[in-house]
Write a structure and sequence with these properties.
Blueprint lengths: L5 E11 L2 H12 L2 E6 L2 E5 L9 E5 L3 E9 L2 H13 L4 E7 L7 E6 L5 E6 L18 E9 L2 H12 L2 E7 L5 E7 L7 E5 L4 E8 L3 H14 L3 E7 L6 E6 L5 E5 L13 E4 L3 H4 L10 H5 L16
Parallel strand pairs: 1-4, 5-8, 9-12, 10-17, 13-16
Antiparallel strand pairs: 1-5, 2-3, 3-4, 6-7, 7-8, 9-13, 10-11, 11-12, 14-15, 15-16
Length: 311
């Protein structure tokens, strides 16, 4: 089994101009719990996760503030920082005691496209509870997907510098890559990179307890008035269910469940032809993927590249 210094995806942090509306949506409809709040800043947890929070919202111009990753211990944090320095990666700050909510020890960098990444350990965890049968709320953060103008360059950065591995790829009939799914642990993917017209957030995905809870959750969000842009269905790559919605800020967010687990020593990456309907949706319940559907997740140009957030 491959031993990586990055253990898992912890949280996503977004800045949104309609902060109050966005916060209300994620608490009242999406099913997250606010565990800490400041003026224009909200930390939201999933009831089924020991992570202190899985989503941070901040009032500001729309952007991705950062993606937060977990590291097993302080020695691994220092080893990862040393590796990235040797690779001439640009740092936001060096390994240090973190003073924000939940604390910890870690550092921040810019990835090759200018997104801010945080790597941390030793933070305060929370007591998770078992999600009840038929309870339509997220159990945890599943994965985070970025749009990139140069798909292969972005994916290669995560492979070369953070030891991520491509689990599967989506390709056009002519063989051109359209999406790469990358893992840092047995989960089929913790991040993915999609070909897009600009760098931006493609979507955030939240794991539900099971199929029943996922389907009830999708119905709940539809009744909230949010628009489902694709689904419900079941992907081929990752074998997970999907139901994609637009949040009030125009970000694509997903309820999913049953994401595949893979064995590093046995798994062979596949190249799935996006023109085949079974690649898009094994069940055939979702509308066929089209340029109009794909465009929904292009999102606004991320104006936060190579600009560190204030918190």
């Amino acid at each position: 089994m491959t031993q990586r210094l990055v253990s898992h995806l912890r949280y996503a942090a977004l800045a949104v101009p309609n902060f109050d509306e966005e916060r209300d949506f994620f608490i009242r409809h999406w099913g997250l719990t606010e565990v800490h709040g400041e003026d224009g800043l909200s930390y939201l947890a999933a009831e089924g996760s020991t992570e202190p929070f899985i989503l941070r919202l901040r009032r500001d111009e729309k952007r991705v503030d950062l993606a937060g990753f977990g590291v097993r211990n302080r020695a691994d944090v220092d080893a990862l920082a040393a590796k990235l320095h040797a690779d001439d990666v640009q740092f936001v700050h060096e390994p240090q005691e973190l003073t924000g909510f939940s604390g910890g020890y870690g550092f921040r960098i810019f990835d090759g496209d200018g997104r801010v990444l945080e790597f941390s350990t030793g933070y305060q965890t929370r007591e998770a509870r078992k999600i009840r049968e038929r309870e339509p709320i997220p159990a945890k953060l599943s994965h985070m997907v970025f749009n990139s103008q140069d798909l292969n360059k972005t994916a290669r950065w995560y492979i070369d510098h953070l030891d991520f591995t491509i689990s599967d790829s989506l390709v056009r009939p002519d063989g051109a890559e359209m999406m790469h799914f990358l893992r840092c642990n047995p989960n089929h993917h913790s991040i993915a990179v999609a070909m897009g017209p600009h760098h931006s957030l493609h979507h955030l995905s939240f794991e539900m307890r099971g199929i029943e809870e996922w389907m009830r959750g999708a119905g709940k969000i539809l009744r909230s008035g949010a628009r489902m842009i694709w689904g419900p269905g079941r992907h081929n790559a990752g074998d997970n269910t999907f139901a994609y919605f637009l949040d009030p800020a125009g970000n694509t967010i997903e309820y999913t469940t049953e994401l595949a687990l893979v064995d590093d020593d046995l798994w062979e990456a596949h190249r799935h032809d996006i023109s085949e309907l079974s690649t898009q949706d094994q069940w055939g319940t979702a509308q066929e993927m089209s340029e109009l559907v794909a465009r929904e997740s292009f999102n606004d140009i991320d104006k936060g590249l190579f600009v560190a957030p204030p918190v």
